[in-house]
Amino acid sequence: xxxxxxxxxxxxxxxxxxQDAPVASPVPHALTDAERCSVDSLAQRATIMALRGELAKxxxxxxxxxxxxxxxAVAKERASLEAQFRERLKPPExxxxxxxxxxFVAPKAQEPKP
Length: 114
Description:
Elements: H1 2-18, H2 33-89, E1 96-98, E2 103-105
Antiparallel strand pairs: 1-2
């Protein structure tokens, strides 16, 4: 008797699957369509959160790898600009360029030793 019941359930399930119709589950605690959507939504949210975490890690790693390149490019650009300023402004020998005030600072005069 049980074998016939199992075969009948399999036939009905196959027929419903072939027609893309929902299969009525004999289990009383089976998920409804709304509950299934909710579970799918939760799974999608979990996937999105995991992907956001991976994106944050990758973004941090990219920034970490780019930092030396950016620092090198900034140093080259500053050196180029300072050379242009020195050529145009002709500051005193030994002066240093202050990037905050964009001016040359004259070297401190050494006090004569007695």
